[in-house]
Fold these 4 entries.
Entry 1:
Amino acid sequence: MSNHNHQYIVREGWISIVTNLLLFGLKYWAGLVSGSIALIADAWHTLTDSVSSVIVLVGGKVSNKPADEEHPFGHGRAEHIAAVIIGVLLAIVAFDFVLSSVEKFNSREGGNFGTIAIVVTIISIVGKEVLAQYAFWGYRKTKSSMLKADAWHHRTDSLSSIIILIGIFVGKFYWWMDSLLALIVALMIAYASYEILSKEIRGLLGERIDPELIRAIKVDIDGLLEREVYIHHFHLHQYGQHNELSCHIKLPATMSLNEAHAICTRIENRIKEKFDLVTTIHPEPLEE
């Protein structure tokens, strides 16, 4: 990861931590005043955003470390691990919300919403959406999966606050509204957790290379060389922002080692320049 990209992650992480701590205090206080389990649960959701932002900072620092003897391909997968931790945190919070919602529903306890709850919820919606937009902007700049995961964490908090705000206005008519809101928030967070975990786990396990990328590489190499090399057997290994590609080519069995090496080097340089992939090529004898 470049130093420029690392700076985006560090800046987003610190802004998120400070903002979320302030919002947590406001929402928790408003939840206590109103007696709303949905607001208190939403406050704890906001606090987990601060925890996830700490993970973003640590993951960004680790993934930015250069390759070493024990990690010859760098530390880029720390980004994926950090995103998985964020997804697990979301799942835990969602499960806790479900338990709290069911418990309050069984006790037939409602919330006493007032002006304080409305004002604090509106502040939370605006603040969290601003954080989400900033994190998404950073993701578009850096392509960091950590920033994308953190952005969705902010977005789910903003959406849950919108649902709570709607519920505040109708909650006075239905005692069970607070329990229902907490359950809806839990389901939204659970879905965000699923989206993050499914993507990151697929990346860690290894995914099939995009057929369009293979096609683009073949077309580009065909136009680069004077001879057909039958490039095939592609494998892509992803390490965060660092990606390693391996493939095979076919060359005449009588070709000298120097000439075969020159062709392989030329292809490797081209793929690095055009597709930003570090490539290792295995030449095979071409059957005449």
Entry 2:
Amino acid sequence: MTQTAPSIVHPVQHRYADPTTDVPAQWNSVLDVLHAHKSVRRYLPDPVSPETIQLLVSAAQSAATSSNLQAWSVVEVRDADRRARLAEVAGGQAHIEQAPVLLVWVADFARLRQLAHDHDAPLDGADYLETSFVGVIDAALAAQNAVLAAESLGLGTVYIGALRNDPERVAAELNLPAHVFPVFGLVVGHPDPTEGTRIKPRLPQAAVLHHETYDLSSQREPVAAYEHRIGEIYTDQGLPYSWTERVLARLASKEALYGRHRLRESLIALGFRLR
């Protein structure tokens, strides 16, 4: 008698594309939204209200921030021509023009430098690499809160790291002052239901969760299993590559970074000294 393969019935199993993943005993609606995340690259023309963007920013400001520095800001871009120019920086990603809003998240030390100037206070610590990291991390934490908020409202999102292809051009387009750096964009809009994007499985926890100390040697087997699982999804979507091929190609050369190999020079040009 042939046994029927177990079916995927829980969001955690969907996240790993693995019906053998244990179903957690604890669950709630927030976890539903988190595990349903997927990048959306096709949008309806329906508008996103200013009030909704304000709510997303409120959620973003509820994220953790190092020493309460709040060393980030976000620029809301609705103008179609400006979004088209930013899409060009990002390699022609059509969803930047298609969706009604692009949010550009920036590491922002201009505000703190202005505060120091107004109080005639030193700010030498802002020139170090550690402080630059704080701004980037703060922006990322804030943006991820905004993503969760947007998806809880039925909106779709996709990050645009390719704005770092030419940070100086982005800074000029957005009139960013010195000491402000565009970290990434975030498209926000109403998903086109015909897109049919599936939840993309992640690496098994055996590859990313370590206990007490890091163990590299044990990762080959779960990575191989992941290659098989995500390969089935790539095949279903007609994508002509494997996960391994894609990640190795992404890091194979400086040309594969599409200009982002200049990141240090761009940061320095925009006022980050990186001591």
Entry 3:
Amino acid sequence: MNGARLRLLAWVMALAAFLAGCTPAVGHLDAVTEQPVPASSAPQAAGDVVAPQPAPSSTPTPAPASAPPEVPAPAPVPQPFALNLYQEGDFVPQYTFDWCVAASIQMAHNLIDDTGGGTWTDSTQQGDLWEMARARSNNSFNGANPLGWAQVLTEAGMGPYTVVSVPDYEDALQTAARAITETGRPVGLVMWSGRHAWVMSGFESLGDPARFPEFPVTGIRVLDPLYPHGSERWGPSPEPNSLLTPEQLATQFVVREPRRWSSDLPTGYMLVLPRAAA
């Protein structure tokens, strides 16, 4: 029996040694070289496949295309411009040497009324208009002055009209041309330093006054009720509807001095000017 026990004990010990040789041991080197577990906020299930992440691109993202710069439109170039209210039959002569204002009122009416059915030419009417203008004037010469002229035009339904004095000659011509363009009505010119009345019925210029704030006036259409007589001092009367250059007009259209008749207006080139209706 002892022999059997010894053999059994030897067999048990051999089996234990065999089993011990099959158990893996974890050493220091194994712990250092162990593969790292991928970091993740969620645990990976068995069999999950982790897709490889693309490497950052080194090609820069193109900037959005900018719109081409706007090219400013070329400034408009002034072109020759002309406006004339005159029609055949609009001219009326003054029937006395005193009635230039009254004749100018009649011509203004004819220029505004283009129907041809209500032309003012009657001498009796001209005398009545002169009395009306004289009654609305206030000066030592006991005649009709530009203030009465403007007031009668307004009261007769052709207004509103007002009297202005412009210090500069070129500015005066532009002011008159602009008023005709805006209102379609003529302008009264106070001639001979306040002694006579003409009507400006139209003009020519370089540039339309409705489009350009500055435009040279190159021609002035005029009606002198004293035609064909004229003046020894100031010169001959131009024919009705004459186109005068600024230089020609300047020989008779001169500044009006305040002492000529009672007025608060300063010295300048005087206009009986139409205004746009309110």
Entry 4:
Amino acid sequence: MTRRSSRLARVLSSALAAGALLTTAACSDDGDKDGSPASGVTASPAARKQPTASPTPTLTESGADAALITEADIEDDWTQVKDTEAENWHDSLLIGKVDVSDFLTAKADAADCQRLMDSLYDDDLLGKPSGANALRGFTQGDSRLLYQVASYDRSDPQDSLKWMAKLPDECDQFTMTEDGEKRTVQVIETKLPDVGDARQGLRVTVQGTSDGEEATLTLDVAAVRIGNDAITVTAGGLDGNEQDSVEAAVKQGTQRLKDVLAGRTPKPAPSEIE
């Protein structure tokens, strides 16, 4: 072979090798089009790192306290009481055994109505809180208002709200008996401000006797869920309707809890600023 032909062979060999490298690179590009890297090609650590979701804010005990409403939030003539006093509020008219014979689907409906009356007496409408918990009580004449902020991070408050939504149909009217005395209970749905992630309002009326005299206990009840946290309000007494105060408590209280969960200090109610 002449020197010229040998040189030409080396040039052709280099060109073929370069062509093979270009073909390999093109195959790699084709492999990336469907989102899968070509065989033998690994992404850098930075490329593999995916963004993570922000953690859900956790309600602390101090946060629950800060989220509680004040007298200014519900206006009227409500007066705040000591926490120890509010913790011991239990109305005896709520005590009794539900009469199963009042129900078409006896066991299921009667059990839900019994749960309602027991939870109103025990102040745990949405079940026992699994996290932070704070409450505050107010009085106005013969009426009481109990406001609670609680975390249900190991349970689902939405399930309790769904249960509450069934009660106006299942427990529209029934009878309870306590020490031989019969009490008539009525449950209706009430409308709440469009706040929070989900909400449910009820009015529960109990007709019976108190201190030997006929009496009617009227309670307006509300629950609002914000994530895994919730506020509950129970207001009323022998004086009757407290729905306006409940609506104010729900509206102001939901915003206070949202502020706390966002790391902000709740703003005072307008009448506190004046």
